[in-house]
Amino acid sequence: MNKVLENARGDDLQNQLSKHTNYEDLCKSLDSPKIFVFSLPHGAVGDSVVDSLHPHLDKGDLIIDASNENWRNTQRRQGKLVSQGVYYIGMGVSGGYQAARRGPSMCPGGEERALDLALPLLNKVAAKDAKGNACVGRCGMGGSGHYVKMVHNGIEHGMMSAQAEAWQIMSMGLGMSYDEIGDVFEGWNAEGELSFSLNTYQKGTFLMEIGSQICKQKDGKGQHVLSVVEDKVVQDIDGTEGTGVRLSLRLMNSPKFINGSQIWSSEEAIRLHVPAPTLSDAHYVRIASAFRKDRKKIKEAFSGDFLHSSWLPSTEEKKKILEDLRRATYCAFLAAFVQGINVIDQADQENRWGIDFAAVIQIWRNGCIIKSDHISDILLAIFTHQQRGPLDRDLLHHHIIASELKKSFPSLRKIVAKGIATNAIIPSLSASLEWLKYSTNTTLPTQFYEAQLDFFGKHMFDLKGEETGQPISGKHHFEWRPA
Question: Which of 149, 216, 371, 418 is an active site residue?
Fold first, then answer.
């Protein structure tokens, strides 16, 4: 806190801040209704703060939890405070530490009256799109704000993985320099599906924008900073990203016992029976990357690794490959959005939050990692129509989504096929391809799978031509082998 006060003096804000060493003193210094905003590590820390504030709160006071909190904790705290007449908003915040000054994307959820109190303030500090519209809005009731931000993080990881896979294909497969790859990302951000928005007149996709800079950035010695970055992502393991931790049995024998993480969005996709492989496969490769020491031992056990070989294209072939790679990356980005929003939709139906999906897309317009203007235009058109009447919210049922994915499918298939042949590491790209194949197919290999289940477990099956189309047990069993 002393450091904060010191920085405030540098900005001539010292008279607007004060330091308090106990909750009673803090609460007495505030006018009524008291409004608290905090961003803390998820779980026990947040509980401790709420418990300490609780005796000093009055009816009408408001807490805005801007942490990356688990939505269940949010709803539990809301339930605890409601009898006291205290409002509690769970608000997801995106944009990283730089957004603290430039304006973040914010996703608040809670009671209508609580949002009425909070939004005038939040509108002032939120990121703005090119038309000046704030990237904040009424997400829904209960823990919806933290839930939507949780899934935002899942979408983010799917997109980041797909772009990283495209980067490595260009670097190792096509032999391109970092500066050349930076130029490609810059071009993708300026033209095509990853670029311009007719609605907001904004150009681009945030990850393409920073991807170009990452590739081109040099240090004081003229060396590319990216060239010395290790291939190890540890945020899932050490919990520093704040998107959910779970016990990692793999680390129980480590000298330093810590919690490992699994992103809650992947857990929710499984719990709600929503296929989201673009998101979940991105997490698996991140987890594998963290254990670099293990990867070295495995490499020794295999007497080497499955080396990424060169694609050896001609100049003309390279142009075609880069265009296919652009379309494949876009396809994976859109797949991540579709999968993530389908998860949110199922949770919304389960919890009856009344999520405003058009507001969510506006929240994601700027100030957040998954900002992608062309995709936002498509989704906003769908959800704006929803406001005028009933709508099938499974995005794969909409022709505009189907058209976009189908248009990019041949390019995605080419890139994945070439990647497999050359040992390219493409978890999110390949997962997106398989997801499209099995989501659009009515002749899956699960026909044989179902027979296996019936053979050893008497799990029953439907007969062709009499299926209900619903995920319920069949009515038929065959005695494959006498018991």
Answer: 149
